[in-house]
User: Fold this.
Amino acid sequence: MITLLNKKIQINSQANPEGVVERAIVNVCEEMQIGEEKFGNILLAVTEAVDNAIEHGNKNNPNKKVELSYQSSPAEITFAVTDQGNGGFDFTKVTDPTKPENPENAGRGILIMKMLSDKLEFLNEEKTVLLSFNLN
Assistant:
């Protein structure tokens, strides 16, 4: 079930919600007249945040939801992805996926989000990730 209300979407924690996320990002970027290069960064980073919220935050529990919302100004758009997990995740202790001694894919999502967004923040005991993108 998907509910679109006042620039917020609730997504069930199920596998492959990318179609829902992609449609929301396409709509927002068209509304904001965001160009292709920035659109690609937004789409990949926000999709990664939603996937992480489902897998790591909500532990793939289909009864839990992920909320995706955004706020914008002429200079910036910020997406918030919030899960219903227990929190307590320490993003500062995530392994560096570029180092050969670290397990494959560990920390990759955060690296992707950090590289593609202009600002990355974790709030609410790490249950919310904010991804900000400069529009100028």
Observations:
- The longest helix spans residues 36-57.
- The radius of gyration is 14 Å.
- The beta strands are 3-5, 8-12, 65-72, 76-82, 119-123, 128-134.
- Residues 118 and 133 are 5 Å apart (CA to CA).
